[in-house]
Each structure stands twice: as C-alpha cells, then as structure tokens.
User: Fold this.
Amino acid sequence: MSEINENINEQHQSLKEELKKQKEKRKQNYKEFKQFAFKGNIIDLSIGVIIGAAFSKIVTSFSNDIIVPIISLLTSNINFANLFFTLDGNKYETIELAKQANVPIIYYGNFLTTVTDFLITAICIFVAIKLLQKFKFNKHTKEEEKQAITTKECIYCKTSIPIHASRCPNCTSILEQQSSRE
Assistant:
C-alpha cells in the first residue's frame, strides 16, 4: 500500500512539475509575442496596411466609376466588364451564356480594369512620394540656409561660431582680423 501511495505521489509531483513548466513556457511565449506585437514597426506596418486597404477602395471606385466609363464613352460605349473570350473557340453573346455552357473563360475586360486600378494607384503613390520628398527637401534647405546665415567658421581652429562673434570661444583668437584678411 505504501508503494502505491509513493508511486501516486511521484506521479503527482511529476505532473505538477510538468504543468509548472508548461505555465512558464506559456508566460514566456506571451512575453515574446507582446514584445513583437507592440514594437513600433509592427504598429506602423499595420496602420499602413489599413490605410492601404482604404486607399485601394478609393482607387478602385475612382477607376470603376469615373475612368472606365470615360474610356467606355471614348470607345463607343464598350463595357469592360463584358469583354471576354472563351477557350473552346465558340462565340457567346454574354458571359452568362458562356458560363451556362461550362466553358473556360478569359475575362480580359476585368483584367484591363485591374491594370487601370494599378496604374492609378502607382501614379497616386508616385505623386505623394514626390510631394513628400519636395516638402522634406525644402524644409532641410531652409534650415541649412538659416544655419549658414547665423554661423561662420573660425579661420584658426575651424570651429563653427556665431556670425557676429569677435572672438572664437574655442581657441580665443580675435576674429576682427579675419574680415580684413578675407
């Protein structure tokens, strides 16, 4: 009887240790996931994906509701959604008739619309990036101009100093003579 109790106690202890290890492992996994999920890059990426999805809907609507009808008007009212051909060699009046005949169909009209969506998206992203770069470049240029106007270089120690300084704070050279040398 004591052997049975001892065996049960050993199994119980072993099970407790295993559960404790599993609990610690879950805590460690949760900690690692939390560190991963809440890093700045992951949050920035998820925001970018959400904005990208919304932007994609806007571009698709712009393409389908504005660009494609204009192109359709210019091409004698061709409806891009109805442009297709079948791979069995027969001609069908509508996509529905081709579907009913259970033949393979290539929807090149939908493809053209998707390519139009892509081109519009690419152009919008290109313009946005160019504007951001221009804004960023102009900001740096103006800051550099302000700094160039407010500082000068000591001819003795080459330290950047205020433009109206008469003595270098670094090497203590008298700078009034600098203007006569230039």
Q: What stands out?
A: The chain has one domain: 39-181. The chain is about 70% helix and 5% strand. Strands lie at 85-86, 105-106, 151-153, 160-162. Helices lie at 2-37, 40-74, 95-100, 108-150, 176-181.
